[in-house]
Amino acid sequence: MVEPYARDTATVHPPADRVSTLHPVSFDPLSTMAASYDAYASDREEAGEPDWRDDIRDDFVSRLPAGRRVLEIGAGVGFTSKWFLDQGIDIVATDLSPANIELCRAKGVPAEVRDMADLGFADRSFAGVWAASCLMHVPTAELGSVFAEVNRVLVDGGLFWAGTWGGPTSEGIWADDWYEPKRFYSIRDDDLMRSLYESHFEVLSFSSFSPMTDSDWHYQSALLRAAGE
Question: Which pLDDT score is estimated for 5?
Fold first, then answer.
């Protein structure tokens, strides 16, 4: 059992007073994900982005190795990528949704439609990768291929920040989703999420906190270093 997400911010988060079931799927969940986010891109643009990730972004930027070229995966409508751009960072935004990418470009952000498991960039081409609230759309069984791609595009010693909502481990289609097509979620408890990171990266930090006071879910924040060859 998991809790559904509120619609009143650009970031998905669960209110404490409702419960929903994630139903197993028998198809590729990515096949409908772009259509889901295309349909609600303008809503997410209007909602804006919460400010509780600001300190995390500042810390990430302060730690970047030489080069300062950053890739954002699952960039959504591009608020964070625009912030990186404003800091003088060479940013590239990617997302599966063409509508999201158009809104990134409208902010002046270089952006491409890409699958995070097949990024298409050259090896060792980014000093950092940023991924906020997108890994929960990847089935756990397929997460390793995403992590392999992140490692491939990061320079030696490059940094990967990943944030996702955590809770009791469950995955499937969220039955009460207001998006159509309804979206796939893979929710993982802290022990599982950390172990998945540890199998592919050096874990510099892993923490969980509750940015939303009306939610029983928590947010998992991980700062990771690329695995050496």
Answer: 29
